[in-house]
Amino acid sequence: MTDLGGHGFPKARRLRVRAQYVALKEKGEGFADGPLAASWLPAGALDRPGSRSQIQRTEARVGVTVSSRVGGSVVRNQVKRRLREAIRLELARFPAVELSIVARPSAATASVAMFRAWMGRAAARIAKTLAAKRKEVGQGRAGQPARAGGAAEPGPQADVKKEQT
Questions:
Q1: Domain-by-domain residue ranges, the chain?
Q2: Which residues on neighbouring strands pair with residue 31, listed in sequence order?
Q3: What is the pLDDT of residues 46-82, one digit of tens each?
Q4: Whether this model's pTM surpasses 0.90
Q5: How much helix, strand and coil, in percent to the nearest 5, is found in the chain?
Q6: Through-space distance between the first and last CA atoms of the chain, rounded to whole angstroms
Q7: Across residues 17-37, what is the average pLDDT?
Q8: Which of 16, 45, 93, 103 could be stapled to 123 by a disulfide with Cβ–Cβ 3.0 to 4.6 Å?
Q9: Which of 52, 7, 45, 43 has the alpha carbon at shortest distance from 26?
Q10: pLDDT of residue 4
């Protein structure tokens, strides 16, 4: 067996059930950039309540979709192989999320290096969004703690709008 140098893409780190992809598309946040598009949710969001798989996930799980819009079967399989290699090398950079990656038609000509660059940008974007959401949960608008009722005090812009009318 080949030593992967700490890199790998085991089944436990993959999305494998269609229902998971559908839930990510419906409930998740998404973005498109270059040859790939993505939908994601925080880790564990796809697990059924009370299931044995609902544990505190600390690693990303990734699924890959390459449709016939990208090309014929040979091209699709080449894209999937290049994309899985990029995932294998870059998976450790992602925060704990459920991530679905969809190849766009321009992925047919993309190299592993291009996919790796996309992975780096996507990991940073997702981490930034997750950090902002965590901060939002702990604070209201304008950096003030949220009130007990959950609503934050109106910010200074609300006063400006009142004065203008």
A1: 11-164
A2: 38
A3: 766 555 554 456 788 999 999 999 999 999 999 999 9
A4: no
A5: 45, 15, 40
A6: 72
A7: 92
A8: 93
A9: 45
A10: 52
Residues 6+ apart with CB under 8 A from 123: 90, 93, 94, 95
On the 0-12 / 13-18 / 19+ scale of CB atoms within 10 A, 67 is: exposed
Q: What is the DSSP letter of 147?
A: P
Q: Which residue type, as a one-letter code, is found at position 85?
A: E
Q: Which residues pair with 29 in a beta bridge?
A: 40
Residue 140 phi, psi (nearest 5): -85, -165
Answer for the pair 70, 98: CB distance below 8 angstroms, yes or no: no
Sheet order of strands, 36-42 included: 29-33, 36-42, 97-103, 61-65
Q: What whole-number distance in Å separates Cα of residue 146 and Cα of residue 153? A: 8
Which residues lie below 8 Å from residue 23, measured CB to CB, with a gap of 6+? 41, 46
Q: What is the pLDDT of residue 161?
A: 45
Task: Please work out, in degrees rounded to the nearest 5, the angle formed at the alpha carbon of residue 35 by the alpha carbons of 28 and 75.
Answer: 110
Rg over alpha carbons for the chain, rounded to the nearest Å, is 20
Residue 86 token pair: 């990029």
Max distance between CA atoms of the chain, in angstroms, equals 72
Is 11-164 assigned to CATH 3.90.960.10? no
Residue 42, helix vs strand vs coil: strand
